[in-house]
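Sample pair:
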Amino acid sequence: MARGEEEPFVGLIIAVIVAACTVGPWLLSLVATFLYQPRKRKVLLERETQAALKGDALTTLSKPFGNREIKQTKMMMANVVMSPSWVQMAIGNFMSLFGGQINVFTKVVDWARREAQQRLREQVAEEGFDEVINMRIETTMLTSTRGGKDKTSGVEILAYGTAIKY
């Protein structure tokens, strides 16, 4: 190839790389937001439905209900860390201009809370406990500092309580 023929080819390669780096992550975020996340939420709903058929083992009561003899207790914890996708962040940031409830963020936090509780239910069942009393939920915001400003990058939800075996 002559020198003049290489330059347009190199320019095309650079243009493709720049496009892939700028558009690619947004396309991936769109796929995650509208295909991956709904599938994961559907699986969570199925897990919650299966657990509900057995009766919910989680309660905020500070003492067990009834006068059954307690054979074993154990502190149990389950957590999840989630963050909105780029697309969800863009939508949420735009909606924050108007104020009020930002549904896209509400859905992410609700999903995280439900996932943490379901993980606790599953962990309790795996270890053979009957119920959890005094169940609590803690939330931690994960932030990153850029340019002297803290930006929320995710949320950790921790569900915990006292597991009881009768």
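The chain has a mean pLDDT of 88.
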